[in-house]
Every structure is written in C-alpha cells, then in structure tokens.
Amino acid sequence: MTTDELKHRTKTFAVEIVKFARRLPHDNATAHAARQLVKSGTAVGANYRASCRAKSGADFISKMTTVEEEADETLYWLEVLVETDTVSAKAVWMLMNEAGQLLRIVVASIKTARGRSR
Fold first, then answer.
1. Using an 8 Å Cβ cutoff, are 14 and 41 in contact?
2. In the list 8, 21, 47, 95, which could disulfide-bond 34, CB 3.0-4.6 Å?
3. Treating both helix axes as pointing N-terminal to C-terminal, what angle do 28-51 and 89-117 enclose, rounded to 10 degrees?
4. Is the whole-model pTM more than 0.90?
C-alpha cells in the first residue's frame, strides 16, 4: 500500500467515524463516548499525515506510535458502544474491521521502521 493510498484510507475512515457518531443517541453517556470516538477516529488519519512529514526515522516511529494508539482507542470506544447495548455489533462491524486492519498496517510499518533504524 502506498503512502497516498493509506492517507486516503485513513481519511475515509475518519469520515465514516464522524457519520456514524452523528447517528448515535444523544444521552450524556453516549455523547461522551461519541466525542471520544470522533477524537480518536479522526486522529488516526491526521497523525498518519503528520508521520509522512517526519524529520527522521525516530520521528516517524514516534508519530506512527501515536497512530497506533489512536486506532486502538477507536476500537475501544466502538467496543464500549457495543457492550453498553448502544449499538449492535453488526452496526459497527465494518468500522471495527477497518480499525483493526489499519492498526495491523501501522504496527507492521513501525516494526519495519525499527528494523531499518538498527
């Protein structure tokens, strides 16, 4: 996957997260989870773009580690929404699948970058 393809994929993911969050109920607990979900889900792409402008290998690894954390946090908030019966697992399956795939791609990139820096 090229840098541009992953930029597009992470941005598309952010857009889908925002669209999903807009459809959630508006009670206090769900609103909190939705805010956190939007924050982490959109940060995946924003931080990936920042990593593409890294000044060094160490800077790239640092920025990609942030992408990893944000993708994992996004999965967490999706799991919370399912486990609180706010949404069905089926309703978030595609988002969880994409978050998981992005997480695996990022972890592999970090491992590759660490191998190169040794």
1. yes
2. 21
3. 30
4. yes
